[in-house]
């Protein structure tokens, strides 16, 4: 029964749109999303995306057969347990390992897994010293912006990309003559760094800009700001700047906080870094309805707000996510058709706020950076006053008055604010922070290209150890009866009731991310996209 949740969803969206108490706004948004997710679950259709970002669906557990099975990876990690060894990732379920399902942001536990994608800094010239004058009249930092100001404007925005659907989305926007704003996440969901020159993303980013769309930041790896130190949060912003600047030669002044979470510290950091903090007043929750049988719910939310509304009196700042298939290939057509039919303009966020495009970006330093600078980490304390005394880390994080000296994790404080031992933590050339622990100054030369080699994209998991294609042998793998698949169990997902693609972890699934060939979907044991 779709109707009740549709009505409730629509009224929630309208409630967001009309809520003028912005200080109270953030918890309500989060709560609203939870509520929607809960409704879907109670309806017997548990949403695969209960957060505003795609999750890597197969959590790494000790029993999953493992993408990698080296003995040193079968170690537990996490709060109260400890960190993984240098270069290993701590999965959402608390196991050390490597590969996408352990390392992908935002789920990899970055405080316990040095190798988490969230802790990998992109290569490129450091942007932290760029002057950040606050030009124009649009609010910087603070409680943020929820509404467009120019009547008749609708700012369509897309978060969490770029992703494999984004180029098609650009085609679509072009065919309608629509402009949009992309809130870019630097490395999430195992897609690899956006400035990886061997990926599709640099070209997609350049094209966005060339075709008149606005490029904004959605942080480096989509972490929950409430769980980050000031140093970690600053890195989340500056690392995304470095990656964007290395592709475009500039970086944005507009950003949107992941999960709509940005409390006082975060607001202050963003103000100091010269960012406009952008939320939204219309959310069709396309990310919750990523299925042909559910996306109508998002269309109904849109219609509730737009159909019959008066463009002479109204404007909207709308949110979608270009990492979801139905959003890109179904909902967007519906939205664009309706938008123009109702007499609105499809513009960027900057334009709907009346901000000249010269204020949307800051020119960054030239050069690839990586090789020369040893001071690419952010050591400036941008928020609270300098601490008066140094505390010893109790949770393995460091910086801002918290030292690693004498802790069980190790005495070096890494560039990303984690205590540990070994060169990833202690080498000055990798950004070891001498103020908050010990560092060895005798840095060995670092290979400049290592940061670009994202293992997810350049070396997919090894193919199944069969010499003949299962489908061409008279006795191919049996159809999975228990959801397990792959060479170890000799079972295929083709024809299985658990989903038709075989995930990297050897589970039948119909989830988009599990089915993506570039992320290691096992094509010999099911279908992949
Ligand atoms: C973000 O972190 C805070 C503090 O740990 C937590 O209460 C909140 O539920 C988290 N929100 C999300 C969306 O993860
Ligand atoms: C698009 O959405 C409609 C519901 O609004 C659905 O019936 C249709 O199957 C979807 N199309 C595709 C190609 O998924």
TrEMBL record:
GO BP, one annotated term: carbohydrate metabolic process
Superkingdom as given in the UniProt entry: Eukaryota
Keywords: Carbohydrate metabolism, Chitin-binding, Cobalt, Disulfide bond, Hydrolase, Metal-binding, Signal
Occurrences of domain Chitin-binding type-1 (ranges): 74-118, 395-441
Biased composition (Basic and acidic residues): 61-72
Cofactor: Co(2+)
SUPFAM superfamilies on file: Glycoside hydrolase/deacetylase, Plant lectins/antimicrobial peptides
Positions of region (Disordered): 40-72, 450-482
Domain NodB homology: 152-347
Disulfide bridges in this chain: 84-96, 89-103, 398-413, 412-426
Cited Pfam families: Polysacc_deac_1
Biased composition (Low complexity): 466-478
GO molecular function ontology, one term from the record: chitin binding
Entry-linked InterPro entries: Chitin-bd_1 (IPR001002), Chitin-binding_1_CS (IPR018371), Endochitinase-like_sf (IPR036861), Glyco_hydro/deAcase_b/a-brl (IPR011330), NODB_dom (IPR002509)
Signal sequence coordinates: 1-17
Gene3D superfamilies on file: Endochitinase-like, Glycoside hydrolase/deacetylase
Name this polypeptide is given: Chitin deacetylase
Organism listed in the record: Staphylotrichum tortipilum
